[in-house]
Amino acid sequence: MFYRADLHIHSHYAQACSKNLNLETLYQWARVKGIHVLGTGDFTHPAWFAELQEKLQPDGSGFFTLKNPPQQHAPEGMKVTDTDVRFCLSTEISSVYQWDGRTRKNHNLVYAPDFETVAEINKRLSRYGNLAADGRPTVSLPSRDVLELVLNTSPRARFIPAHAWTPWFSTLGSRGGYNSIQECFRDLTPHIFAIETGLSSDPAMNWQWSALDAITMVSFSDAHSPQKLGREVTLFNTERSYDAMFAAMQTGKGFGGTYEFFPEEGKYSYDGHRLCKVVLSPQQTNALNGICPHCGKPLTIGVFNRVHTLSDRQAPLQPATASNFSHIVPLPEILSEINGTSPESKKVQQAFISAVSKFGNEFTLLNDTPIPDIERFNATLATAIGNMRKGQVTRTPGYDGIYGHIKLLQNELPRSSQTLQTRLF
């Protein structure tokens, strides 16, 4: 069975996240996007865990269904394809600690097949941090020890390093991470079967480093609002169950690859210093010894530079067992470019409702619908999606917490983009 999974999201209990991140709204937006399996996020938070226990029921496969789905199966005004949405118990944990003379800050994803396992994980983790302080709790426990705690709780619990390359909070990041998976997890490294690429990285970038050849590349949205679900997703063709899904990640059998951001769109793609509006390629940064030419402070080293520093290949070499992937641009961003307004504008929202209602869900339109069928609906939209699928796009890299920009239509660039691209290239 083919299905799409987004296993890294947050709840309304997480800091800097939408108050609309409740189960009912998540259910509706999963159907808008075309997501079949959705992480719950934040199961470590006591109030959210209580809400999950109240509103979800096990389906016998290790996933959960919503006991009382909203009568409106999509946000008001939308008509969507009937998608059977299941939930997977998940959370993200922030480990902040000292190791080998440096402060380490790593985010990791943890999954469980039942409420009993979650309760035990939460009980053990509560010794190392206040789980009620944030949907994504901070614990004073090294990543390696969080992994050990998870493994000792249940043989079916799973652990995946989150957005593995981002500078500040990741396993391999330039500021808070390590120089290898082995250095971080040491004796437990064999239990790391997958890493989340993050918005600023894609599998091809990871294939430049032979040390990652045996690790599966997964991608999820890290959504902080319902509308951001599915920015990246992972594809499967297995029995739709908890054990089968994770077995696919571990063995490659039934693993279908990922839908990815163009990595330049991620907000830690290139090096830079946002206060000085400086954005630099790895080569430019190296020439400056990593120092901002405006203020003299250290630059935030982005993912492209970090991958280049650690990798041992001049070009990507796809492992024989690795699946392919596709780049996508979220539909609201495509419609924003077409209409010349922000993705949040009323004009774009109306166009989004119209397109989703016509084609059933966002992923069907972006990836599956023949271009001639889209052309009969809107010729400009067909051109934009065709260019996206072929990778014929203009890329303005993000840096130091500022998202990049992907341009799909080859008309004249806005002045701000021209200025930025002149500096970059």
From TrEMBL:
The keyword Hydrolase applies. Gene3D superfamilies: Metal-dependent hydrolases. Keywords: ATP-binding, Helicase, Hydrolase, Nucleotide-binding. The keyword Phosphoprotein does not apply. GO terms for molecular function: helicase activity. It comes from the Bacteria. InterPro entries: Pol/histidinol_Pase-like. This is DNA helicase UvrD. It comes from Deminuibacter soli.
